Amino acid sequence: MKQNKLVPINNVMEADECIRFLLNRPKMEMVGLGMLYGAPGLGKTTYAQRMAFQRGYIYLRLESTTTPKAFMVALLSALYRKFRLGAMIPIGTANNLLQLILHILEDHKDTVIVIDEIDYAFSHEKLLGAIRDIVDETLTVLILVGMQGARDKLSQINAHYFDRCNYFYEFQFLSKQDIEMVAREVMEVDVTPELVEKIDFNSGGNLRKAMKVMYIIESICQQCPDVDIAEIDLGRAI
Questions:
Q1: Residue 50: what pLDDT?
Q2: What pLDDT digit, counting tens, does each position of 23-66 carry?
Q3: Looking at residue 39, what is its pLDDT?
Q4: Residue ranges making up the domain that contains 125
Q5: Are residues 109 and 204 in the same domain?
Q6: DSSP 8-state symbol, 143
Q7: Are residues 208 and 131 in the same domain?
Q8: What does the DSSP 8-state code read for residue 142?
Q9: Which residues pair with 114 in a beta bridge?
Q10: pTM of the model as a whole
């Protein structure tokens, strides 16, 4: 299978529209905060990582152990690498690091930052506050990526913060057309209607499952070119 493809399925197109909207917003009137969210396995992280890499955006992934200061250090390190500001990352209090981050972002007004697994920040008021300060005090576009309930949780935690978010998109389960598009882009076997039907049926529109099914079918087809797609037993693999 071909690797690192960002196939323009519906979720990708809609997520791209979120970023375009924020980049083109009236910057003196609206902050650049948006959120992508949805059920597991729909390609949110894959999109965020590959899109950020291809476009030169900053990608950060929160973890359950991420503290406000750890976030500042990670973001500052990413900014230093991106803008080649030196090998020695400054140290200090979380507030001092935040002030330096704001200063750098003021000098680089077109910066786009993607923060994955934003759900881990919901229990850290200071971490959410730092993200709020970044979008309030700079022109940075900041994309939050979270799980299915992320939008509702953000609304419950802080309605004022929620109101700052100027674009939401919920990732959807893949249509059969999406499945076919992905299969044609990544599979190295003939993509027939029967093959698309089998992938769609066994994945239920879940991209992660679909990729697994594609890999299994492709492996079998490469070993046995004359195999009947309908007869392929996916067994316990899914």
A1: 95
A2: 999 998 999 999 999 999 999 999 999 999 999 999 999 999 99
A3: 96
A4: 10-170
A5: no
A6: E
A7: no
A8: E
A9: 59, 143
A10: 0.91
Comparing CA positions, the residue from 140, 143, 141, 147 lying closest to residue 117 is 147
Strands 112-116 and 141-146: parallel
Pairing of the two strands 112-116 and 32-37: unpaired
* CA angle (198, 179, 228) in 5-degree steps: 25
CB 46 within 8 A of CB 177: no
Check whether residue 225 and residue 202 sit in a common domain. Answer: yes
What residues in the chain have per-residue pLDDT under 70?
230-231, 235-238
The secondary structure of 25-82 as a DSSP string is: S-TTTS-EEEEEE-STTSSHHHHHHHHHHHHT-EEEE--TT--HHHHHHHHHHHHHHH
**What's the domain count of the chain?**
2
Q: What is the reported pLDDT for 226?
A: 74
| Last-in-domain residue among 170, 190, 205 | 170
